[in-house]
Please model this.
Amino acid sequence: MSELDRREFLKIVGLSAGAAAAAGCSDPAEKLIPYVVQPETITPGIAVEYASTCLECSTGCGLHVKTREGRPIKLEGNPEHPINQGRLCARGQASLGRTYHPDRIAGPATRSGDGSLQPIGWEDAKAKLAAKLGSAAGRTWILGGPVGPSLDGLLDQVAQATGIAGRLTYEPFGDHALLEASRQLFGAYAVPVFDLTGADLVVDFGSDFLDTGRSPVEHARQLAAGRDVAAHANGGTRVIAISPRQNLTASNADIWVPAKPGSEGVLALALAQAVAQARGNATVSALASAGSKAAALAAAGIDAALFDKVAAKLAGARRAVALPPGVAASTTAGRSDAAAVLLLNAAVGSIGTSVKYPAADAKRTASLADVKKLIEKMNAGQVECLLIHDLNPVFSLPTALGFREALAKVELVVAFAPLADETTELANLLLPDHTPMESWGDASPRQGVRSLVQPTIRPLFDTQAMGDTLLAAARATGAAGVASLPAGSWKSVLEANWSGTSWRHALARGGEFGEMPQRSVSLVEGLSGVRVGAPTISGSGDLTLVAFPHSYLGDGRGAALPWNQEIPDPVTKLSWNSWVELSHEKAAELDVTLGDVVTVATEAGSVDVSVFPRGGIPNDVIAIPIGQGHTVGHYASRAGDEDPQPGVARGVNLADLLPAATDEAGARPSSRRRRRSRRPAAIAGSRCRSGRTTSASAVSHPSSICTTSRRRAASRTSSPRRRRWPPSTPPTTPPITPPITSPRRATKRAAMEPPEGTTSPARPSSSTPATMPIRISPIAGA
Amino acid sequence: MTIDNDKCTGCSACITACYVENNVSIVGEKQALMHREMTWLRIERYVGDGDDDASLDSERRPIPSGETLGGTQVRHLPMLCQHCGAAPCEAVCPVIATYHNDEGINGMVYNRCVGTRYCANNCTYKVRRFNYFDYGRKNWPGLLGLMLNPDVTVRGQGVMEKCSFCVQRIETARQPAKDAGKPIADGAVKTACQQSCPSDAISFGNVRDKASAPSQRAQQGAARAYHALQVLNTRSAVTYLGQVRREES
Model:
């Protein structure tokens, strides 16, 4: 036995201790590399901010991206930007996570026959696309979401140079109805800017302008300034919200008119008529002659006193603004609804003052009808290659349209999305784009305001800007028109588009912010009277379904971000799942209680969703938020849950319930017509599923509702003996919200009495017809 | 801090801003169902007149029922750590992990905290959050950890946490002020919630300085100023300005 000397012994012990320490350490080894040559702009520990633009929705707010050591860590509003003036909404804040998201597609890939992804190099990937563009350009289509003006121009150029058959820009929450209505009334094909500054009355026809409206940050700021009690002794701007469901705007409104879904247009026309007569505006009165108070009262289910009150406020207002319906209130009568609201604005004289039209016309974008035509072409085998960017059509298009099935008939589906989603799962060729924080770009939220997007981090993955990918692929086709393409990279194209300005100055400020050149509009000569048809409500059930956009999820693109899931919805305080809102009375009638799972069926399909009974919704209306129901994604689906269930949807996708209906834009307003289908729409009674969490979860905010797994288990085991809700209270008098903590007392005490003095709440009577067809909100089609 | 409830619309931009700024963990659906969310700032929504005889369901959970059709008696109250002058949480901490500094901030020393949760138990406002699991390590999959704010500690398992009034932002402003030999100027520190608020409902500053923005706003709105649960005399540092009702609805 050899002698083990002291030195040898220490060596062995030291080595094994080191190995044990390495094995026991769960964190991967990381190298800390000091700056050898320190970048000039970076001081470790000091944040550097870059101006950029938020691309999370189409509002186009300015950003200051706060970076530390080359990594964006926080997004804040750009104080110089005219739209958000330094503020940023919840969705904008959350968009930081996109760049670092676990769903990022690591690099270009092709899908092999068995459905698995094979990574390929960028050169091969672009050659593949170029080969297809070269051989079948006439059978190639581009389908995408809205992009900035420079990228939009480049896409058009590429489409033209390579001879691509067509390009559709489709925004699920687009403003088609409003555009068509503007053209009908004023001959201006443009989205007006609704300026609430200086307004003393804002009437919202279901656009939910404080939450999911056209420019929520801007409008919230303008309203807060207009309601500042320090500056306005009389309390400032009054808000009247017209919405079947108590949304965030109705929660903040002074008067809430719980009009029946689909009655916004009829109500607006009757109000326009009443206000025009009161103000002696003969032109508008003649145009709104079809508006009748009796018809409006019947359609909206409100009492005459409430109508008169709203009409009197509008007639007496110094400056009133009426906001046309948004997504939640979009119906098959979308254009005439918007036209009636614009007419109401004309009646109160706010066109040109608070409703400002930009000088230039809007670019025509695709409507749902155009997408339908494309799907027909795909089904007929006329589309060989489809390029999809900035859009998740497999998720967001109504399932009834059959986009998924049509996509299977396309030989090459190219997806540019940086994050995996339902569409990239079906694509054959993935050419991942940078995220907005890694790429160059621009946005033009309104005429006169140009906003730049600049990269604030080196691309984390093997991605390439879509502009560069398409330029390279187009050049490689060698088509005749390619010579007309701009030289250089996507960035140089962008710089060329900004050539009239100081690039460095624009980059530092975040863009070029000027006044919007306004056009003076007036009602078109010889306009025939505006008529509002009742929306076509399909189905024959006794409940009307309102599909409203979720506060943070938008059309579903926000569902990938963890904060959007975790932070409770501002009205219901529910998180991480879908829910169906229905009234307490209806819940009692159906014998369901909070968290019970019901089946909601329309003629297009059915979903299982948990119940959220509340007082802020009429008995014959149910409401489900849009945005959940993804089957792909770490946070969007259940793939990243504590007990991971890849491929299982989180919540329900409203696309499964909505028919492929479009509104009447471009045609005469439809007459009053209700189509009834044979299949009844129904809410089946309480039904709980085992194994899968289908209930909406709630965060324990004092005013929130909570449904726990325990509760579901209880109602499972005691299924024969269903609980009645409420236990002892008669259904007509819902009990008062009981907050857990008692700051309520302090709030109550300190709540300031209004100058006029408070009276007991006047409840508008809502007549409840025995049967009411299921009412569908098609996603802004045309 | 002064919060004008009349301006707050409840949009929740402040909550997301707080999550991102302060590395607040996402806990996921299962944990959220067990009320283990980590939010430092929540917006309480009160509906109706808030009578005490509200009925509770069998599990003593509140049912939202103050809502009436056409009723607009909704109030939004952003609730965060009130940084009480006489804080109930501080007195019960056995290890002095939560303490009061001379600027009036109720601080948390994470590495002192042993997780007794006495402080959360004693907190009047229920704003303290406990890390039941190692959310900070588990819940930032992939590269999401790169997005964490390096100025804010990622809290480990067994540690209590709560709103710090964005103390890291105060510290960032302190050094330049010190270099200039002046106190931190009013408006030099904007908390994350205040910065994001679209309706400018939140103002933050030195409440002892009568000329500071929060003091000014509290004085201007003196008729509707109150502290949450002021009857308990916690000497809260947050002044709320009550909501104004403009219409008899």
In short: The two ends of chain B are 31 Å apart (CA to CA). The mean pLDDT of chain B is 88.
